[in-house]
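Treating backbone geometry as a discrete language has practical consequences that deserve illustration. The sequence in question and its structure tokens are set out directly beneath this paragraph.
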Amino acid sequence: MCGIAGFCDFTKKSNKHILEKMTDVLHHRGPDDSGYSFYETKDAHVGLGHRRLSILDLSIHGHQPMDFEELEIVYNGEVYNFKEIRAELEKLDYSFESDSDTEVILKAYSEWGIKAVDRFNGMFAIAIYDKEKEKLTLIRDRTGIKPLYFYEKDGLFLFSSELKSFHEHIGFKKEVDFDALAQFFHYGYIPQPYSIFKNTQKLLAGHYLELDLKSQKTSLKKYWDVKDFYNLPKKKIDYNDAMDEVEELLISSFKYRMVSDVPVGVFLSGGYDSSAVAAILQKNSTQKIKTFTIGFHEEGYNEAHHAKK
């Protein structure tokens, strides 16, 4: 994982030092590299920060914030099909300096705008600043695997992978939202879009948020809804064909997630799901798959002996 953080401050009280503090508190998410961009525009002070955990293209070419023409990106996640998207962009005369998915996302956005997200197969929290249009866009993956929070009050807009970044900004008002607290007591967690603090939300899964620096207005839009797929007509195939197709989908999905420039391991419990993942990966690999298991002294919670078997 990586960590992203930043702000659009219409009061113009933010500075690069604050941006660095907001970003570096996420060091645990990205110990390999850090980057910061700070701009003073006519309307606001804008900051983008990134902490990097290197997975694809370990070189300096994968450094963030990354820019292309008038666009600049900070991003946490993986777009698994970036090689296919890159090939599509190369046919449109785009060239690439890195082997990272970050550069592919950035240039895909340059070519197709927000519709580029429809091509992304992966998990992601993305912030893109368009310096020409003076617009900040935040995008969260379809099921909300990657976290992304934002805070909006009194001319200050903050965003981050974790709430702790907001505590580093002098303008953040740390007020408990008691309605959200009630949800925590009811559910055992706080469902999206709420958070424990007032004026602070999780960006909804499958949504993107646009902040227009000129008007200082935000707009939230949905780009994907799982209900659309629930409502599709069922395939008219028999059980065996369905079983074969599911296996093909699993193999394809697992292969995507094995694309990495660092070693990959599998978290193996004693259940059917992780056992199936490990089995399918090993069946289709000549390298021995490395697995990791967490055990407990309390037998009722311990699956280590099942995983070992």
